[in-house]
Amino acid sequence: ILLVVTCTVTLSATKVANSTLMIHMVSPKNFRNGTSKIVNGYQAQLYQFPYYLRLLGYRNAWQDLEDYNYECGAVLISLGWSITAAHCFYAQNFNGQMDFLEKFYVIAGIINRGDHHSNVQYRVIMSEYATPHREYSHETLENDIGILKIPVPFLWTVHVDIISLPSYNFNIMDYVGEVAVASGFGLTSTNGPSSYDLQYAYLDVISRRECKETFIDIPQSAFCCKDSEYDSSICQGDSGGPITLYDVNYRITVVGVSSFTSEKCGVPPQGFTDVARFRPFIKEVTGL
């Protein structure tokens, strides 16, 4: 199969010497069995993230399911709809151009790659059901959000459940200093192996001003988080997965989807698409 290198986009930076902003898709060549962590994270427990979806992407509709080209995460916002990062719908070809993937394989109800119990649910979804934001930019990562319809909705179980969207008036900057939780199956270190188990990390929401100390050109549609104590972070393969926190009504809410980081995983901060900014887009496509 064709294994595609991870896409990179260069942004200006002042604090980090290497200013490459890295998209978090991962090719299957990076996967090895093991139980290591996301990047200084923790192993997820059963029922802890029932809204997490593993999203595999394929260049060609005829490819076997085990021959995926890219892996991302996604978030179940209803039994028939999910959100992810828009860049998870694309793959870079050998000419450097971005091709829209033709097929996706979505897996719900798992906490490790070996899960095959009766509550694990699978869906094969063709590209016609994938909707990236109309103003998504590969170059700047503005509007890095996409919606994937699940034509045959998942069935609710204790392993598979939805998560709340933020309210229309939600402002992530009101939560600066609060702890959020990011989850994913991504690499456990820069250029390292993917995690066998679903992992999660605690990250602090930071201000745009602090984020701009690293990324001058942070997308307007994004916010940043960091963990200064243990250097926990998202990494390649975590793209599109959720970052969550409790809102003012004490609901667990998906406030962002993983979008970018600096070239070296574990170096703060990391960037997430601000889901609240896209409630009108989500409403337009899904009715939710």
Automatic annotation (TrEMBL):
GO molecular function, one term: serine-type endopeptidase activity
Gene3D superfamilies: Trypsin-like serine proteases
Domain of life: Eukaryota
An annotated GO BP: proteolysis
UniProt keywords, alphabetically: Digestion, Disulfide bond, Hydrolase, Protease, Serine protease
Ranges for domain Peptidase S1: 38-287
Database matches in Pfam families: Trypsin
TM stretches of this protein: none
Presence of the UniProt keyword Glycoprotein in the record: no
Cited InterPro entries: Peptidase_S1, Peptidase_S1_PA, Peptidase_S1_PA_chymotrypsin, Peptidase_S1A, Trypsin_dom, TRYPSIN_HIS, TRYPSIN_SER
Similarity remark: Belongs to the peptidase S1 family. CLIP subfamily.
Designated name of the protein: Putative trypsin-like serine protease
Species of origin: Nyssomyia neivai
